[in-house]
């Protein structure tokens, strides 16, 4: 029987957690030996593998499952593209400057930090909450923590309302808040100036002349839109279809301080699903309609609240809370993906954007937010960009970014049409011929019918806008009823865009996976699911003796053939230390080769979370661990198949 | 029996080939609807898949096979890093300006284009070669082609010598060549100015203040070096080991015109293998020593020649042609990788860099060059960067980028050492005590022995550099022979760097894979190996009738479970057209579902190159095609297992 594990014996300790990630080189500040650069991080071997596995599962879950068309477009982008998309004018954050030091702060972050800190101080003073755990000296010096001062009731309520709608304020409104509530730079206690816009795109210059400005893309989306016609053709002209891309994007954040949660360079995965604006139903919606999500809609937030509801996406579409089936379909699929890779479903919600918060291109947007030590963090955006992007690029370039759909039933219409005898027209009216044609062409159905009646009488009189009159006769023009058949419908598709910040997902996943052993808070474990764990099986030879070499090779190659990624740890420390190290790396299983393996062909199997050990013939253990890694069986089942290991080597 | 295929019925036609790649959206100019930007390309669905498969195989062949440590480091890099690495000062190309239009050209490309064009004109005039095939109007207008003028013998010889050592000229030498041979801008026939250096890094600025210049990395390598200490620790302090990274890099090329072969943004795969400078042997060299490569060494080139030799890497190391085993090991592994993904071994050679050609950090370098319509193109560089990078970063930052190796046999040394009685020294000499100590500390072994002898006599006299004399007695100092034991060796490792340009490999692979059907030059085929083909199996239902749906799902899911990536083509055209489209996409196998499939459970299997069709029960065909895709059997064997299909549907 599998042992019980108590994962909540110790409260989450961010300092200890981050020390583990740093020690095991999941990631580290980039250019560390040069003092680092805020917002830039390098992934080490376990971080790179974890990221690769998250991406791999993303490809399977979205691209392969839904036959999406994958793209790989350039990061460097000439300025006209972002002028058209609106990013040059509007992709900006509001920043304020410390009036004395000139330090630059993001305005909304300043408001948030100071108000949250005052509320924390109020709670402390009112005995509502214990004093926060002691912070390191550096933070204290920065003065982020306010004194324990009780606030009037109305101030508490006002602060809470402001925080609930923080993302909805304009720059000038943020400035107004700073003045009204005397919000100062917490690092210096100096006042700050008026909010100013700072464009978040990194700028550069393409080619040797310096005359062609370019930007690093802040999202991969434009690369999809610019290739729309090619993608449509590749898809045999059919809509709906989706393109997908995994790649780097860049945002020159004002003063990033939140680790992997706010960075200047990041890997995104984006889907652009192109859909008929008149029909945003989704063919496979029935497969997900019963998926229940935690929803926080815009009305609740705009009224200062943060109460969520649990609702199936089917019901949410019916009630008009989620705008359409396609948007809801992707929200459900995003949920399924995040749960599959190991995100805690109890710490996942979908929050709708408020009116002013939405990006300039979006008409509706829901964020998948994942809860972590910093609060709720947007990790996936799911926006309905409508026809915005394709329309503006088409208007700027003249390219036809449209779908031409053959109508199953052609639309047949009849209307009155003027038929001219051009020769007679020219001869009779000379210079006035053009004016006469214009007058008739501008007539509506009713006027044409009247003219038709008059001509049937032999003659008609028409009048130009400046009052000149002309007589028309049937030898110059006749009005006839004609049939028109439209067999092609032309439209600009709408775009539903799920956009994933992979670094944020990776970080929150690590946080959700982390715990400390009940008996020793210093023994950290990352309970990453085998699906995404950097290494699936650790091979641990008892000692570095050469006699183990053939067995190590045998086990490695058998696991490789079974599609299981393993690593050998033959370092010069005890088996216990090697397993402890690999608990920190999130390796779910370990096999130990000892003298009994050499003599009797047995091998022990260890499970990371329980530290249970089982034993069996080498091939049997390989078969069991393969099924475990692929999720076909759980540990309890493995325990039924393999007897417990009593810790003694069975050697002669 | 498998049919014979004639792949060389038609000469390679670059225009037709590029039209195919464009039509099937392997790649296309980025920002095409905005008029494009030279040197920037987007990969469409088949190009993205092909690239992903090439990368996937690279990971298996190098990272997994050799237990390399994968990294994912940032592209945006603060200026000090590239100041230290030498890139700010030296990562530049020589450009010349058209004296009248101001157009900018790369100096070495100008020399190459004009001289090659003159030689071609000479050959034409001498009847040595037919006139080149007619070029498109745009090129003709640009005047790249010189008139058919015969040249004196010595000019022909001089031009050929210049071309053979083109990469070895400095900027001023290129300027000298332009003046001496009157080399002008072929587009305008204007003279060009003196060569000037143009730094190839894209520049930007990090953060909102504009005070922190940054560059987009031109290679991923610095990210490895800066993380060296962390990597070493992750590897339990052991050397040799290798780090590896796949990622984007950027070079602001002066005037790129060669499609995917010269671009401003590209995906690279780089390995940094850290090795003991005193022992560059490789543990696994014996596995590759018999691999025969085509080598073009630097001496041949420096004497103006281009004759290659075929030699095993074992022999090349023995003869000192390749500097060491590790370099040679990677050259052989690079060769094996390129052949595996489908590069034609007869169009692959390894060329050694000449003295002036080498990057500023390299001590030896071999390029894997792949032949294509543009000539020989560097696709992989394999350089010995020695200790350059780690040394300069350590010197600049003070970080200890070294290996500390416990010596198996401690090194024991004996030497004479002065032992002071500090108390007596201070009391006796007061302010002079420091000077006296300095004098003795600066003495070498011989002087110490003389001093020892004198002290043994009771007293010694020493002299400071400014002539002051001091008397020393044994109560102040004695000289004793002591034993020292050094158990740690400290050294800066050397780096062997295989660096892959994936876009160039992808392009040349496509060129090597392309041919036209004997019976119709317009019917192009890309014979990509199944290992890298974007889609492995095409599923073709005879018609779009609903009765095929369950079968399509069954076949798709069975292939997916077998690990074979398939696509369904149910578009509204004939089966023949669907297969022709997929021949252009490089899909190696196709299965057709017809009415016999529904009634009798049979399916036909088609092979791309031969267009042979076989038939069998659905499960049997799936088993055969799976073995084909994984390379376990070839088509001839498949033909032995499945009977030929006579083209008639066997339905009741």
What can you tell me about this protein's structure?
- Two copies of one chain form a homodimer.
- Chain A has 652 residues and is an alpha+beta fold.
- In chain A, 35% of the residues lie in helices and 26% in strands.
- Chain A is built from 24 helices and 28 strands.
- In chain A, the strands form eight sheets. In chain A, strands 3-10-11-21-16-15-14-12-13 form a nine-stranded mixed sheet. A five-stranded mixed sheet of chain A has the order 25-24-26-27-28, with helices on both faces.
- In chain A, a hairpin with a 2-residue loop joins strand 15 and strand 16.
- At the A-B interface, strand 2, helix 2, strand 3, strand 4 and strand 8 of A face strand 2, helix 2, strand 3, strand 4 and strand 8 of B.
Number of helices of chain A: 24
Which two chains form the greatest contact, residue counts included? Answer: A-B, 75 and 75 residues
Mean pLDDT of chain A: 92
- Beta-strand proportion of chain A: 25-35%
Give the fraction of residues assigned to helices of chain A.
Answer: 25-40%
Count of DSSP strands of chain A: 28
Oligomer type: homodimer
Q: Cα-atom Rg of chain A, whole angstroms?
A: 33 Å
Give, in spatial order, the strands making up the sheet with the most strands of chain A: 3-10-11-21-16-15-14-12-13
Enumerate the spans of chain A where pLDDT stays under 50 for 5 or more consecutive residues: 133-143
Question: How many strands, what sense, and barrel or not for the largest sheet of chain A?
Answer: 9 strands, mixed
Inertia-based shape of chain A: elongated
**Structural class by sheet pairing and helices of chain A:** alpha+beta
């Amino acid at each position: 029987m599998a042992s019980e594990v108590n994962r909540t014996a110790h409260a989450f300790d961010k300092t200890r957690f981050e020390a583990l990630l740093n020690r095991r080189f999941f990631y580290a500040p980039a250019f560390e030996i040069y003092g680092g650069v805020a917002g830039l991080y390098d992934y080490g071997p376990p971080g790179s593998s974890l990221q690769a596995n998250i991406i791999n599962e993303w490809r399977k879950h979205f691209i392969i499952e839904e036959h999406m068309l994958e793209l790989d477009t350039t990061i460097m982008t000439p300025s006209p593209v972002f002028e058209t998309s609106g990013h040059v004018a509007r992709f900006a954050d509001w920043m304020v400057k410390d009036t004395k030091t000139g330090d630059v702060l993001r305005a909304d972050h300043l408001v948030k930090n100071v108000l949250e800190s005052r509320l924390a101080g109020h709670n402390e003073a009112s005995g509502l909450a214990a004093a926060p755990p002691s912070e390191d000296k550096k933070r204290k010096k920065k003065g982020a923590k306010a004194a324990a001062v009780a606030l009037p009731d109305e101030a508490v309520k006002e602060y809470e309302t402001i925080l609930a709608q923080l993302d909805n304020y304009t720059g000038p409104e943020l400035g107004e808040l700073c003045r009204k509530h005397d919000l100062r730079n917490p690092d210096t206690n100096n006042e700050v100036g008026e909010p100013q816009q700072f464009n978040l795109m990194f700028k550069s210059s393409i080619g040797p002349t310096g005359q062609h400005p370019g930007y690093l893309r802040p999202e991969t989306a434009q690369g999809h839109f610019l290739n729309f016609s090619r993608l449509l053709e590749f898809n045999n002209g059919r809509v709906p279809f989706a393109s997908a891309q995994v790649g780097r994007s860049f945002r020159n954040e004002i003063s990033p301080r939140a680790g992997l949660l706010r960075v200047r360079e990041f890997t995104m995965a984006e889907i652009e699903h192109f859909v008929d604006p008149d029909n945003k139903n989704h063919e496979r919606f029935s497969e997900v309609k019963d998926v229940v999500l935690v929803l926080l809609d815009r009305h609740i937030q705009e009224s200062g609240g943060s109460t969520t509801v649990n609702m199936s996406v089917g019901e949410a579409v019916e009630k008009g809370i989620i705008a359409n089936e396609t948007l809801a379909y992707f929200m459900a699929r995003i949920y399924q993906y995040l749960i599959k890779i190991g995100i805690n479903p109890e710490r996942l919600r979908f929050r709708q954007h408020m009116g002013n918060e939405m990006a300039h291109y979006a008409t509706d947007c829901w964020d998948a937010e994942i809860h972590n030590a910093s609060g709720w963090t947007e990790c996936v955006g799911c926006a309905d960009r409508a026809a915005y992007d394709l329309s503006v690029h088409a208007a700027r370039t003249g390219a036809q970014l449209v779908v031409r759909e053959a109508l199953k039933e052609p639309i047949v219409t009849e209307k009155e049409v003027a038929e001219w005898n051009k020769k007679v027209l020219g001869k009779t009216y000379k210079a006035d011929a053009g004016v006469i044609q214009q007058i008739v062409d501008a007539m509506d159905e009713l006027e044409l019918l009247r003219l038709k009646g008059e001509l049937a009488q032999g003659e008609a009189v028409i009048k130009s806008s400046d009052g000149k009159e002309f007589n028309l006769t049937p030898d110059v023009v006749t009005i006839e009823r004609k049939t028109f058949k439209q067999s092609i419908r032309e439209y600009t598709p709408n775009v539903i865009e799920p956009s994933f910040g992979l670094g944020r997902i990776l970080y929150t996943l690590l946080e959700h996976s982390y715990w400390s052993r009940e008996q020793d808070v210093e023994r950290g474990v990352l309970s990453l699911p085998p699906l995404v764990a950097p290494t699936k099986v650790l091979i641990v030879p008892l000692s570095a003796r050469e006699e183990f070499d053939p067995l190590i090779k045998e086990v490695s190659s058998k696991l490789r053939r079974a599609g299981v990624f393993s690593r050998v740890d033959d370092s010069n420390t005890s088996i216990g230390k090697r397993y402890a190290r690999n608990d920190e790396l999130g390796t779910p299983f370990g096999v130990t080769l000892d003298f009994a393996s050499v003599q009797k062909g047995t091998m022990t199997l260890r499970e990371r979370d329980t530290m249970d050990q089982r034993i069996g013939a080498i091939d049997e253990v390989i078969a069991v661990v393969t099924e475990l890694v692929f999720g076909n069986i759980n540990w309890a089942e493995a325990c039924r198949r393999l007897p417990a290991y009593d810790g003694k080597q069975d050697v002669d």
